[in-house]
Amino acid sequence: MRQLNTIFQEEKDLLALREQVASHPPEKTLIQVFYGATEQRNVKALWSRLVELFPGAAILGASSSGEIVNAHMMEHAIVVSVSLFDHTQVRTALVDQNDDLVAAGTLLGTALAAHAPNAVIVFGCGLKNKNFFDNRPFLKSLHMSLGNIPIAGGQSGGYAELESRPFVFTEQGLVDEGFAAAVLSGNKLCVHTARELGWVPIGKK
Q1: Over the chain, what is the mean pLDDT?
Q2: pLDDT at 17 (0 to 100)
């Protein structure tokens, strides 16, 4: 597996990425986008260009508030991360509603389960009518549909000073209410999960 990361600023950044991945099978390519730019009205143009330049590749993206590239924290950036797998196939699914979280989890889980998943990455729109809501019913429903499959991901974000709404997308489309996911499949794929909360001990034991 190879990982390529870039900060998107202009067209040539995408063209350079395309040159690096041109010979790689698109069904074994995952393009993740973390969109933290202040001007969010341009996201549809970027999405359209990604679909055009990387036909057949799985694309998974979300709005973000704080972006990480090559272990460096940034703000108001657009990070494009490309994963090139040797033996793992990647597919995506998109649900365009979060009114019924249980139904959304079931629908997404059924679509992903059809591809014999080893792991799933999910991004969700966690803001509705300018209020954050609890996505746990969605995750429970998704887990029940997938069985004992590792699930990673998070909520799409946004900057407080902006009026724009959080969004998620795949190569299939872009939504500001719903969930986007990528499924990783392959008999040589080994998945390990862990979490780090970042706590630093202080004081005496």
Answers
A1: 90
A2: 95
